[in-house]
Amino acid sequence: MKKLITIWRFIDGKAGHEKQSIAAINALSKKINCEVCDIDLPAKTSFLSALLFGKLKKLKNLNKPNLIIGVGHQTHLYILFAKKYYGGMSILIMKPSLPTDWFDLCILPEHDNVWAQKEYPDWALSGEARIFYTQGPLVDIKERKRNKRGKSMILIGGPSKNYQWSNVKIMLQIIDLIKQNPDDKFRLVTSRRTPKSFLKYLGHGRLRAIEPGEPLGDDDVLHAQNLDIHTNIPSDPEWINELMSEAPYVWVTNDSFSMIYEALSYGAQVGLLCLDAYPNNRLDRATRQLFAGKRCNWDDERNYKKLTINRKNLNEAEDCAAFILKKYEKN
Description:
Rossmann fold, alpha/beta, 2 domains, 6-stranded parallel sheet, 5-stranded parallel sheet, single chain
């Protein structure tokens, strides 16, 4: 019988953070029996207020943790408090706003380039390591489907601090993509960040070539017989993950690094719809590294028929879980 460990998972209510901690825990549960205690952080309450008003007393009623996991800046002090008073190994899945050496392990993308006193130089499983680098966010992969019989996906992000959003630039690329692949079926999915000014061009109407620099008119709405459009995304993240696992090709706007990485993890051929990056942009450098390593595809000449990349599927949640257990056992 596999050994049982207790995991405390601090949750800050942000879906993106929760997805990463779930990915790590589910990967761990495949290797060892896990008792998971989910601890929701008090809404709109600082750590100090939670401490002063006794909102942390409930932790006494839980089995003492072997691992304490959290994602998000709000979880930092809760993780450190839990370790000090209840023991266990503290694990933060992000670039910390506190010194990395305050935590037993920080899991973060390699493009963050964080320095630590005890940083391991390679992939060797060292019990002294304080940082485990990944190429991107952790993804919970329940099933990779070998026969990709679903519709190809087009995933739209929105304005961000890293890229200059342009409705016209993205529309140009989508139109080229659809026109160059008339026999393919596509599913376009927007996100919470997608601006309303872009959404109004998604509907029934005509599909025509738009020249670079040309403004979009009120009747320039995107329409094609081989395109389904989803602007109201279900809150359940499994909906899009299921579609992604079936999609042979996934096209993602390059402002959405997490979605690029999820698509790669599900084994799809991944292409980028590109926005102009702001200077000194770490995420843009990381995306270009994926391209240089032949993980994903884009073409400045907008030829969307060249998307054929043979590569190994990513599963960094599994690699991360193996490292966590090795470090836990050594300590």
